[in-house]
Amino acid sequence: MTLDAARIASPPERGRASARGMTPLMSACVVLVVATVAAINLAIPKLSASSLAPGSTGLLWIVDSYVLVFGCLLIPAGALGDRYGRKGVLLAGLGVFTAGCLLSAAAPGVGVLVAGRLVTGMGAALIMPATLSLLLQVTESPRRPQAIATWTAATGIAGAVGNLGGGAVLQWLPWQALFLFSAPLAAVLGVLVARLAPRGDRHPADLDLVGTVLLTAALFTLLFGIIEGPERGWTSAPVLGGFCSAALLLAGFILHALRAEHPLLDPRVFAIAPLRSGVLGIALAFFGLFALFFVNAQYLQYAKGYSPLVTGVAIAPLVVGMIVMSKRSVGLARRFGARPVVAFGLLTLAAGLGLLSLADASTPYALYAADLAVMSLGMGLCVPSLSVGVMGALPPSRAGLGSGLNGAAREIGSALGVAVLGTVLTGRFADELPPALSGHAHSAGEALAAADAAGAGPSTHAQVVDAFTEAMATGYRLVAMVVCVAAVVVALGTPPREREPRTP
């Protein structure tokens, strides 16, 4: 499965002209689907106080259902684009995304809202790999690393965009407005893609439905065990069953992939060291970033007393380092080597998480903003080089697989980051609460609502906030340690010099 070498090396004049407009258009599609992840985190306080009454586990499922189905379906979605045309798959994804947003906005209960989030995640999975594949198709070979860096920067910046836009919407409107605003944006992007995007190249690609089902089920059951553990008990039959099922399903997926003629993902592809390290590194980076997004809005609203709009603005420092460093990271990797850039980036990200674990209700915002900037520098340094490593390990005819792996690592890492930090937050929060509120210990929102209903004074509110920040600190430190330790593994597998995306 190869592309015509002349077409790869020197795109036609129309392709070069298209590349200038395609970069912002494809980046806008990426920003929409990733910003949706961040914006829903900002809505957690309003969701907690709404008639849905989701509880702590319900909130985690509302956040993670979108992210997990997004990540699990990215690789088959990439194969769909390779086989049937990336432009058509991108347009289908924008349509499904629009439908999912409308279903979510109309949800009368948690179950329907989670279903709407699942549908929206399916649309996002169709969108994401097609954007990078189309962008690389119209970009000349020497400019591809920079195009990947720009696209990657959009995925990181999108989190802050989701916070800023979500904060503006939630300042005056209910949580449903998030979805009612996203739906027309997706429709407008669909019109622009139909008019401006080139028809994508097609390549033979097989769809492994069995492998897709096995991998998706494995990750959902793993997430079930992590999310439900604090409430049901870590030794309860459902939770242990979730973990056991995840292990069996993952083993079944690997066995199937090794035997299938055209597997969803051949495990042997991870024998390529740059690809293996790139996938793991991307997952780790977004594990840390979206753990932050899950708890940041709650901290700023519960502990600092910020409104949704101010909360959205307060995350802005996270953008600065990503913009500055993402544009320079590829050049730094060429000059100093990919390994030191990736290692330093991941360690800086872990340091930022560690600094954030020191924040409490009395922490000045300026200090909190500086901690966010440290995190953003780490993200901007490591993620572009990691993405280039993944794409450079595969031939252009497998661009759909490469971008699918990039996206799957990002979203699965994000889902696990939210689940792990949310689980630690729930369990630790219950331990830190005063006995009088221990029966309402599932989330800070529930505890504060119970305190208000009981007519409790400021001292009780302060106790709830202190319990929340202590639990938040524990979660941040755990996530930081995971990123720090795994950074060593990633760095050892990263080649000393950055590899550009391969050409025939």
Categorize the overall geometry.
globular
Number of helices: 19
- Write down the secondary-structure element order: HHHHHHHHHHHHHHHHHHH
Instruction: Estimate percent helicity.
Output: over 70%
Number of strands: 0
Supply Rg.
22 Å
Strand content: under 5%
Largest sheet: none
Q: Can you walk through the features of this model?
A:
This protein is an all-alpha fold. Helix content is 79%, strand content 0%. The protein contains 19 helices and no strands. Helix 18 runs antiparallel to helix 19 (458-493). The radius of gyration is 22 Å and the shape is globular. The chain starts with a helix and ends in an 11-residue tail after the last helix. The model is unreliable at 1-17 and 500-504 (pLDDT under 50).
Offer a quick outline of the entry.
Helices cover 79% and strands 0% of the residues. It is mainly α and 504 residues long. Helix 2 runs antiparallel to helix 7 (110-137) and helix 14 (317-336) crosses helix 16.
